[in-house]
Amino acid sequence: MRIGELSKRTGVAVPTIKYYLREGMVPPGERTSPNQARYDEGHVHRLRLVRALIEVGRLPVAKVREVLGAVDTPAGNVDKLLGTVQKAVLPAMPENAEPEIQTAAEQEVTAMTTALGWCTPDDHPATSALAATLVTAQALGHTGFLDLVRRYALIAEQIGVADLDYIADHPGIDGMLEKVVVGTVLGDTALLALRRLAQAAESTKRYPDETGG
Amino acid sequence: MRIGELSKRTGVAVPTIKYYLREGMVPPGERTSPNQARYDEGHVHRLRLVRALIEVGRLPVAKVREVLGAVDTPAGNVDKLLGTVQKAVLPAMPENAEPEIQTAAEQEVTAMTTALGWCTPDDHPATSALAATLVTAQALGHTGFLDLVRRYALIAEQIGVADLDYIADHPGIDGMLEKVVVGTVLGDTALLALRRLAQAAESTKRYPDETGG
Fold first, then answer.
1. A199 vs B129, B164, B192: nearest CB
2. R_g over Cα of chain B
3. Do residues B64 and A192 touch, judged by C-beta distance below 8 A?
């Protein structure tokens, strides 16, 4: 198909497609003349993946390129790709903590994950992000937040198992690599959406009078 | 304390504090002269809360104002405040789905939550967000994602219970309202960070050879 049809099929504007092509985020089409190229279903799929990363994952273009680079590297293994994707798609993180307070909170996180038997790299960026939430909660006097995080950790173990089951159930290494990307990005959104629905359901159950139920 | 000390205590620049005061996000200090006001610990606390919503929750100023308005309304009940905060702090959501496909996916989500016995409003924005992830996964041919979401739903029930326990354990309605805000915003970040650590731990367990472990 020509670039116009590719645009129609994916809902991505032609100038945007041309930009992705220039940036190497979408592989070039097959040249049919100096000014024309032909595209196939692989291009449709890749464009959808790029849009999912940008719209659902809210990744900046540089991060999308990084993640796709990992997907396109056939030698990549699951554990390494997971690390690359995790670093690209990190949760928001407060940055104004004093270094000593932040370091103490990171040690608290490491002590917690070690007690759970989790084998994770010491410098994992998620450790800093989690520690920063503890620092912020502490500064607001919400001391109970640490206990909530401890309960979350036990729940997160189940999420990790579900995620790795999802990734492992694949038709080949290419499919597996893409699933890491899609599962991380779409999974974050799905999980937070389900958290809100579950909260609403639990809240209605506990406070039926207030909602007229 | 004067505004200069308030700035020092919270790490928020004086012009930014003045902006929050003008916008009504921080209550005015006690006037001591036409050009000076005195601030107290309540202002320190409120500024930290504003920064947490902006830095951790990545909320735009208009949303922060909306959430704080709900916190400052003494008549607000838990269920209503939860709804306001949830709407302000929604997960990212793709928007390019065709209306019929999106509607079908929303019906699928509602069928799932109904089967779980969750009582949630039909028009909850999290339903659309979750449906949009299903549409995106489907467009990418990742049909297994629906099964992952079903597993997530069972896990999310436990998150909802933990969250409502956290909110209920409070010294008064003011504390409870603030906990909804802090718990939602910091909780999202904590949960996604723990998801990554749990994934890394599970990945290392399953693929030890690849990481040299």
1. B164
2. 21
3. no
Is the whole model's pTM more than 0.80, yes or no? yes
Buried b (16+ CB within 10 A) or exposed e, B175-195: ebbbbbbbbbbbbbbbbbbbb
Decide if B203 contacts B213 (C-beta within 8 A).
no
Q: DSSP letter at B169?
A: S
d(CA A126, CA B195): 9
CA B34, distance to chain mean position in Å, is 39
pLDDT digit string (tens) for A134-177?
998 988 888 889 999 999 999 999 999 999 999 887 666 667 77
Please tell me which residue of chain B has the smallest CA distance to A184: B196
Q: Do A48 and B136 touch (CB under 8 A)?
A: yes
Among all residues of chain B, which has the CA nearest to that of A119? B201
Residue A5 CB coordination number (10 Å): 12
Among the partner residues A52, A118, A195, nearest to B160 by beta-carbon distance: A195
Q: Which residues does A69 contact at the CB level (< 8 Å), separation at least 6?
A: none
Distance CA(A199)–CA(A176), nearest Å, equals: 32
Secondary element (H or E) of residue A203:
helix A173-206
Going B101 to A42 to A163 to B180, the CA torsion angle's sign is negative
ipTM for this prediction: 0.86
User: For residue B195, which of A166, A52, A191, A60 has the smallest C-alpha distance?
Assistant: A191
| B25 contacts: CB under 8 Å, gap ≥ 6 | B46, B50, B61, B64, B65, B68
